[in-house]
Amino acid sequence: MDIREEKRVIRREALAARRSLTADERHDFSKRIQKQLFDQDEYLTAKCVFLYAAMEEEVHTNAIISDLLGAGKMVCLPYVDEERNMVAVRLHSIVDLVEGKFGILTVGDGLREVVDPEKISLVLVPGAAFTRMGDRIGMGGGFFDDYLPKATHAHRIGLTYSCQLVDHIPMEENDCTVEKIITENEVIECV
């Protein structure tokens, strides 16, 4: 099996495990993940945070977005342009969110202010699967793997449910890792 096929299998199995969680479990686990995140130094000291607006099955981020906005921090969300490049756009208010590509919430037309990746101090990274070493597989589009190297001053924390942790992910040259992973059960410092 080649690397890409192995990744597809891992992604499919991890997403199936995530789908098997009930809505109540996802809600409870997300609250536990958020509580742990709110205690992390990288989160507390960040001035500009790039994160995702969660789809239903992902670790929920609405409370995180609200907390960051309430603290007066700069909040950025992904926006994928017509050339399939992902950029970070500033979110000033939850009411500015609209449905974008792939059904993912982003900042509405006319309100998109692209933020220089160098200004980002923390990226909360989604993923289909993670290892305890910080390796990750995304949804297959490569958007975060293309973007993360540009955010050279940013810490990277993966948010995931424990059922999405796997023993091994085959990594390719352009695949990016995270420094820390937070699940509903633990905070993992990646080596």
Q: How is this structure best described in words?
A:
The chain has 191 residues and is an alpha/beta fold. The chain has a single domain, classed as Rossmann fold. 27% of the residues lie in helices and 21% in strands. It has five helices and eleven strands, in the order αααβαβββββββαβββ. The protein has helices spanning 3-19, 23-37, 41-45, 62-70, 143-147, and strands spanning 48-50, 74-80, 86-91, 97-99, 105-107, 122-125, 129-130, 136-137, 155-159, 180-182, 187-189. The strands form three sheets. A seven-stranded mixed beta sheet has the order 3-2-1-6-9-10-11. Strands 4-5 form a two-stranded antiparallel sheet. The longest helix is centred in the first third of the chain and has 17 residues, at 3-19.
CATH architecture: 3-Layer(aba) Sandwich
User: Helicity range of the residues?
Assistant: 25-40%
Q: Kindly name the structural category.
A: alpha/beta
Reading side by side through the largest sheet, how are the strands ordered? 3-2-1-6-9-10-11
Number of helices: 5
The CATH superfamily title: NagB/RpiA/CoA transferase-like
> What is the CATH first-level class name?
Alpha Beta
Residue fraction in strands: 15-25%
Distance, first to last CA = 27 Å
CATH topology: Rossmann fold
Q: What's the pLDDT, averaged over the residues?
A: 94
Q: Which word captures the global form?
A: globular
Low-confidence runs of at least 5 consecutive residues: none
Q: How many domains is the backbone divided into?
A: 1
Question: What is the structure about, briefly put?
Answer:
With 191 residues, the chain is an alpha/beta fold.
